Amino acid sequence: MFKNNETAEIGRNKMLKKHIKNTVAIIAAATSFASIASAEINGPVNYIIPFGPGGESDISARLQQPFFKDKFGEDMVVSYQPGGGGAVGWASLNGLNGDGQTIMGVNLPHIIIKPAQKNVGFKTDDLNTFYMFHYTPDAIVVTADSPYQTLADLVADAKANPGQVTMSGSGKASANHLAQIKFDKLAGTLTTYVPFKGTGAAVTALLGKQTVAEWGYTTVGAKQGDAVRMLAVAMENRHPLFPDVPTFKELGYDMTGGAYRGIALPNSASAETTKMWSDMIAEINTDPAFQKKMLDGGFAMLDVDSAGMKDFMAARVEEYLKDAREAGLIK
Amino acid sequence: MEFSHFLSAMTPFNIALALFGVVAGTVIGSIPGLTATMALAVLVPITFSMDPASALILLGAIYTGAIYGGAYAAILLNTPGTPSAIATTFDGYPMAKRGDGDLAVALACFSSVFGGMVGAIALLLLAPPLSKVALAFGPVEYFWLSIFGLSLIASLSNGNLMKGLAGGAFGMILSTVGVAEISADIRLTFGSQVMIGGFGVVGALIGLYCIPVLIDLVATPERHLKVEENVKSVRISEAFKIAMRSKFNLIRSSVVGTLVGILPGAGGSVAGLVAYSEAKRTGKDHQKFGEGEPDGIIATESANSATVGGGFIPTLVLGIPGTPPDAIVLGALLVQGVRTGPAMFSQSGSIVYTFIYGLIIATILMLPAGLLIGRYAYKSIVTIPKAVLVPTVGFMTIIGTFAIRNSVSDVIIMLCLGVFGWLIARFGFAASPIVLGLILGPIAEQGFVQGWTIGAATNNLIGMFFGRPISQAIIAFTLMTLILPIYLAYKKQPHKEV
Amino acid sequence: MGTSSSKSQGQFGSLFISTLFIFIGLITLYDTTSYSDRDSQVFPQTVAIILIITAGTSLITRLLKPSNEGGFGEGIWWRRVLFISAMFITCFAMPIIGFLASGVIAFTSGLIAAMHDKWSFRTVLIYGCSGAIIMVSFFILFKFILFVPLP
């Protein structure tokens, strides 16, 4: 009699389990259909810049703003959340709603170097970066009336007077700083890096002759026009806006790169939402009118979408961490 | 500079924009926690469909109004509506407490209009040469300027010198919390992520200035501000007369404000402090400053309004923003395809000049608009029963602090600072030195470290810090400002509070 | 009052806060030892030393010359406590029950704390309604016009 009940019970359990499995499967299918169907934007999107206004991140976001409205019909609201050199914003990203209405700008090397230094509230891999849409190539900038006509002049001066060539730049352990360290290694020179709060302050210092040169970006050259001269840019080929400025590679220094900027979603966002945003930004990025505006501003275009992001980031992580370790910035 | 640009600025559309901007800006600036930067950031997309000159006029008008609007909360609630109005609390609130609040508001309006005009005219006539001033200020000059600002602590702390200095030092320590700007360290966070962003100035302002006032308001049944029974409109002419009597103060403070506005990274708060310090040092009645001296308001409000025009000088001429709102304006211009920087005055001259004239018009419009809004603001604050005023302001502090960085922890920090500020104020430690330390600390630190790095690299440390003419002038002013209160403290009775 | 100068509220409070500041200065100095960059240490160390010296001087002079100055003064305590604790509770409640709901907590407590006159039906109605209007208008202003993501 026992056995019969047991078998009946086991049988009932099996049926129950099957029912549960089926129900779960149906629910899962339904929700995934729903999320595919709901991967769209409803209402204005919030584009958070983890810095104060006026920087390159802000400018590039502002350039995207009208194109977004034009193509997708919704407002893109740019807001600022400065603090900790971006850390405050990035640390709060994954606490935000992942429905696709909120995105945040991300910057390399910041999001790689900062977590490696100390506990900043986020790890590089935590951030769901779905697109890298431009970079600002490193460039050495001097004033138009500077005695340095070419990069060779600066290198010669630095070699003759080690430590006395002062170069302003934005922040420490930043793109500018890493570029200065790398170049010093390649050229065998010893220059002094003077950190300033943001590119604007670094440019002011250069123009005011507080330092003799600046580690900046091509955007500085575009903005300041005839007031400055760029000695070299860290690109594969010369920038279309500056056909007369050689690349570091041409001059014998194997250096390309700069500060990369992209956009991320909270990591609670679904794969569909991520793909949707990746496609939207890609569409803006391939618009010739947008590209012209960016290039005119001195930016350099880049297209790394959500599919290619993993490899891109892995390569950058390796590169930056190696440079930073060699420079003694991280352990 | 042609007259045609003035005419294009005078179109009905542009004038309407200017008026709307000034009114909206004033309202926004008067709410603590809402800054001009925030308002501009939100309104930039509207400008995409306008032509560049009109867009600039709108943004400039909002900025102008916001800097003025900060004075309302400063005078009537002891809380700077924007950081630029910090120094306005020194004399504004005491004046309000003794029943002269409407006088103070009217004075603030006249001074702001005058200062704004001086700044705008400087922008119009002297922009290119003045932009060189921005460049001549190197890290060392910024360092000495912040020391000068900090020396104001000494003269503010009548008789409580040690406590004032301790407060200032404490404020400077607070400013180091978080990620260091010019080095790669994270400081005083004790491993937690809450403090990575550091103590924001706006939140700290609200906490240290407003919360103690509220704590005391709930505790006693007295009215918040004394109300006189006079006809309010009489005070406008009274304010005008007072302003005219202090012509020299007005002019000097406006010039100071313009110059400080030209320096990127300084801004309205520093301008107000410097102008106040000078007004106090050279004023006939040193002691009255801080107890409701109209000259104090004249100095701070004209100076901080002058930074609007002054700040646009490096923004338009060099493409380097003088203040955060300027950075937003730069962004808006860039989207429109307008190239700022050295080429702007020559290539896009019509846009620039139309804008500057529009700014002047907006400043002029601020006079009737400001007086009207001011009278209305004063009336409402004074007649609202305290039982409703306190919770309203309390609610405002919460929502305002939250809006800065969309963070609840900011609000909690603000409240903690507020309770702390109330506590220590009971025992002789004032809030203003702490705020001064918080604002000027980063400027001092960056200036020092940068100056040291350059000086050490060029083997010229002494010359770097003491050999530059502008630095020497600032050092001289600092010494003069310091000697006065120490001398006064020495003259006072021995059994004073230390 | 009956307390002597050296035991008065003002005396004790002033000494306590001076000591607190000295303590803060010491903590800062300790923290600087963990920095990797010499540049980040200079300023905090200098300022911490200034803090310790000034707070110390204030401490010593107050000890040597006790006085009655300072103190909590008049004021009804429960109102203060209610007001401040309500504000704190509002902050902690915000992520859970949303902004408007927690705002109501803050507003009502503030109302009760600040209301020294007698309550009447009329005042409850008027103050309550104006409070609601104020809160809702601010909410709309911030959330929908300024796009601040209030919970």
Folded structure, characterized:
The complex is a heterotrimer of chains A (331), B (498) and C (151). Chain A is α/β, with parallel strands linked by helices. Chain A contains eleven helices and ten strands. In chain A, strands 1, 2, 3, 4, 5, 6, 7, 8, 9 and 10 form a ten-stranded mixed beta sheet that branches. Mean pLDDT of chain A is 84; it is low at 30-37. Chain B has 498 residues and is mostly helical. Chain B has one domain. Chain B has a two-stranded antiparallel sheet. Chain B is globular, with a radius of gyration of 22 Å. Chain B starts with a helix and ends in a 7-residue tail after the last helix. The mean pLDDT of chain B is 86. Chain C is mainly α. Chain C folds into two domains: 3-64, no CATH class; 77-145, no CATH class. Chain C contains five helices and no strands. Chain C has helices spanning 9-32, 38-64, 77-97, 99-114, 121-145. The longest helix of chain C has 27 residues, at 38-64. The radius of gyration of chain C is 23 Å and the shape is flat. At the B-C interface, α3, α8, α9, α17 and α18 of B face α1, α2, α3, α4 and α5 of C.
Separate helix tally of chain C: 5
The average pLDDT score of chain B comes to 86
Number of helices, where a helix is a run of at least 4 consecutive DSSP H or I residues of chain B: 21
Strand content of chain C: under 5%
Task: Going across the biggest sheet of chain B, name each strand in turn.
Answer: 1-2
Structural class of chain C: mainly alpha
Q: What's the N-to-C terminus distance of chain B?
A: 57 Å
The whole-number mean of residue pLDDT values of chain C reads 84
Helix content of chain B: over 70%
Counting copies of identical and different chains, the oligomeric state is heterotrimer
Helix and strand pattern of chain C: HHHHH
Structural class of chain B: mainly alpha
Cα(first) to Cα(last) distance of chain C is 50 Å
Low-confidence stretches of chain B: none
Number of domains of chain C: 2
Bulk shape of chain B: globular
What string gives the helices and strands of chain B in order?
A: HHHHHHHHEEHHHHHHHHHHHHH
Biggest sheet record of chain B: 2 strands, antiparallel
Q: What is the CA-atom radius of gyration of chain C, in angstroms? A: 23 Å
| % residues in beta strands of chain B | under 5%
Low-confidence stretches of chain C: none
